[in-house]
Design a protein that fits this description.
With 74 residues, the protein is an alpha+beta fold. 15% of the residues lie in helices and 19% in strands.
């Protein structure tokens, strides 16, 4: 079995204003909410996603990276 290298940094793009921010993802919890640093919108995961990184980030959360699309962080 091949070990997967997990990336801990993801850039979140606000769907309201388009602002991008590079963030470090938690490895021990889901992040359900994220406040945009530009417009203040509170982002929540889209239906079917486990966290804001899976919905709005350039890289999915660490558990999804490690386990594939069937992985979930919570």
């Amino acid at each position: 079995m091949r070990e997967v290298s997990v990336i801990l940094s993801s850039t979140i793009t606000c769907p309201i204003c388009g602002f991008k921010a590079s963030e470090t993802m938690p490895t021990d919890a889901c992040q359900y909410f994220y406040e945009c640093k530009s417009c203040g919108a509170v982002l929540r995961p889209r239906a079917g996603d486990c966290c804001v990184f899976c919905s709005f980030g350039t890289v999915p959360c660490p558990p999804v990276q490690a386990q594939g699309k069937q992985g979930r962080c919570c």
